Amino acid sequence: MLLGGCSDSLKTWSKPDTLLNASNTRNLIHVAERLQVTVDQLFEVHSTAELEDGDHPQRLSKHNDPNNCLCNYRTRKGLSYCQLADRMGGISNQRVQHMCKTSRASKAGIERICRYEKMTPEEFVALYGGERLAD
Fold first, then answer.
1. Pair (59, 125) in one structural domain
2. pTM of the shown model
3. 86-129 confidence digits (pLDDT tens)
4. Is the Cα dihedral 12, 51, 97, 75 positive or negative?
5. Range of the structural domain that residue 12 is part of
6. Which residues contact 74 (CB under 8 A, 6 or more apart)?
7. Residue 62 domain flag
8. DSSP state of 108
9. Which of 60, 64, 116, 131 has its CA at a distance of 20 to 30 angstroms from the CA of residue 32?
10. Which value, in Å, is the radius of gyration of the alpha carbons in the chain?
11. Three-state DSSP class for 134?
12. How many Å apart are CA 38 and CA 74, to the nearest integer?
């Protein structure tokens, strides 16, 4: 149950003809109060360019492997592949995606992100999992 019983209403809000009926309006006000924002703020549209590091929503995909500490790091930090590539010294997004999809994180990839995080590879692996490392 989301926000005190509002989950059913949240599902129907995508239909314009149901959004403004009395019960949905009450629930909309309730959601805004719970989130401590105005109702207008619930409808603000923002581009993804406005998102800062860590603001990208993450969901698990079939390519995520809990043994890959780079993948775990990206997901926990809420980073896009582009943001992770920047942190890893400007390598390509495609290379980062490949590093995150493999069942083992590359040592070179871990070393790159460890330079950014100012930690040792051992600390990184202990924090983000991934006992198995590739060469």
1. yes
2. 0.56
3. 999 879 989 998 888 888 888 999 999 999 999 999 999 999 98
4. negative
5. 7-42
6. 58, 81, 84, 100
7. yes
8. H
9. 60
10. 20
11. strand
12. 32
